[in-house]
Fold these 2 entries.
Entry 1:
Amino acid sequence: FPIEPTEQTLSLYAIYECHHIEPRSVDSYLSGICSELEPFYPNIRKIRSSALVSRTLRGGKRLYSQPVKRKRALTSDDIDLIFTRLHQSTQYDDILFLAQLLTGLYALMRLGELVWPDRHELRSFSKVSRRTTVVLTEHSFEFTLRTHKSDKQFNGDTVLVHDDSLAGPRVVNLFKAYLSFRDRTFPCRAELWLRRNGSIPTRSWFIRRLRAIFPDDSSVAGHSMRAGGATALALAGVTGSLIQ
């Protein structure tokens, strides 16, 4: 094959990858390749958007793509079950898990915004929420999300939960209870979310605790929080554009 990329070589590469990975991911692979090659081949973007490459991708998706397997949204019954089981616990990690779960649910947060990745090379303190950003009122709490998946400008966002929302007062009270535990145990630490052993909670730690409550339901996972919060808002009559 010629070293200089052409419509034919990108098309062959796309269909080759479709045999080995989910075809919906090949778009991302090609975007990364174009980003790397553009300084050397300025017309690579034009080749990438050519009819041959675009049709090859469409054909690959039709031939090899698998149905999307979405995780089940947490329902109000699920939340009542979890809350009833854990809210009277005196164990530090139980209160931490419940506070994270309900905060993520009602603030529509991704699990990755609450915990650390399992892979050490992906961890960064620049993404860890800080205790000093927490603002408490009688009826609400808020803290700063320093950066996240959709934060293209790295400006961060404020996460706000108020007790007159779907969350109700129990979530605000639970967060305050966790904060009280945390401040007594780790008065000099900067991280907002900390386990009893002093480590930042990881994705696998959170998922293990969630699966322990739903041992026979593999459709419940980290994204179930965000999906459950969005579903609850929709059922309450909130418009789709506002939820988004």
Note: Residues 76-242 form a domain with the hpI Integrase; Chain A fold (CATH 1.10.443.10).
Entry 2:
Amino acid sequence: QAYVSYSNVAALTHLAAKPGWEITSTLDDIKIWTHEEGDLLSLKIEMQVKIPSHLAFSLLSDFTFRQQWDKHFLSCEVLQAVNEDEKIYYVTSPPMTGHKPRDFVILVSQRQPCKPSEPYVVAVKSVTLTSMPPSPEYCRSEILCAGFQIYSDSNSTCTVCYFNQVTSGVMPYLAANLTGSSKSIEDTALECIKFLE
């Protein structure tokens, strides 16, 4: 268990630190970056938010709030609170045209910064729980590596970076975006900023 939560945070930190991120879109408060490596596509969405970093951290690390701003989350419940910093959630997503709705069992690990220059971290990855086997109604999907890094810019502002490493499984959600308009990603980011502020 300790290894899984450590590797969850380490994977996100490693992804964030990779060289070769390319910026694809810039709005006032949102920048979208991509990183390609083999059949893995990673996204980074950087948002400028007018609230203190510790507040953004407490709002983003509780995934039961996620439906309020992310339309890809239909439902989200805590299956297991492993400890103060680790929770396992069960998430369902709405169906795409012609597909079954998807579901996920995810571990969310949160970490406070050790030094002021370091970010708050909320790392996410799929885990397997014997008590939650795949059901025929849903297409069980996997999150390889996703999450947030939250950097403090001042007492009242912060930069929130959302990362997601995408496999071919999550592609139907993003295919429409990446073919020309990243509208839905930007809409979700704007909703996230609105929710936080």
Note: DSSP finds four helices and ten strands in the chain.
